[in-house]
What does this fold into?
Amino acid sequence: MFTIIGMLVVLAAVVGGYLMERGNLLVLLQPAELLIIGGAAAGTLLIANPMPVVIRILKGMAAPFLPSRFSRNSYLETLKMLNELFVFARKNGVVALEAHIEDPQKSDLFSKYPAFIKHHHSLYFVCDTLRMSVSGGIGPFELEQMMDLDIEVHHHEIGVPVAALTTVADALPGLGIVAAVLGVVITMGALGGPPEEIGQKVAAALVGTFLGILLCYGFVGPLASFMAKLNDQEAQYYHCLRVGVISFAKGNNPIMAAEFARRAIPHELRPTFHEMETACRGEKNAAKQAA
It folds into this structure.
């Protein structure tokens, strides 16, 4: 929502200021200049990146216009899920978790949390770690190293589209100059004609530089910056999962492990301990009633 508002503010400020100076808005409408800049930018994107990266860039550019995956409620649901998972392992033994982590899509434990199941990487980030704890006999230190490695690899992977889009944004002013130079070439061919025609061609050439700079600093660059912040939020979420799982692997009781995970949540999204405790107790009461 705020992304759309920000774009409208950029357009309103630029166009409004131009109109206040009694500029002719039709002069800024130069489809040929936009085609040169946009087409060249798309071409450089295809040259520099394989198709999977391009697809991830397009998906990433759509993310700022969608509701955020990470909110106070989503973190609270994650804490409830971790607590229920740990309570089940404490009551029935860690080996009893094997049936749930081998096929989490059909698990009664995970099916209560469709938002968590929907994101496969976070789901298997938890399940694969617990699988190694159950079947491999790996200690908490080795589990922590494995989870850190997984987070590092994933963060690098999701950072590739951001870096590629930032490179395109940095190239846009230069592509605007290319469009302007082509406009100057056309203008030179029109020398000797009416002054009005020459003036229009010079204006069209300058619009190319204007569009390149505006697209870079007003739209594409900020989108890349927003995508980078979303990646940081995702890394914080995986850090929360890691802290909770490792805390339980070290022998802490379920609510204490969930508290460790809660402390890893950023302050603006962190539920209070009372909220977490109430939610977890609600899950316990529901389980007792079902039994």
Remarks:
- Residues 26-64+73-290 form one domain.
- DSSP finds twelve helices and no strands in the chain.
- Confidence is low (pLDDT under 50) at residues 286-291.
- The radius of gyration is 27 Å.
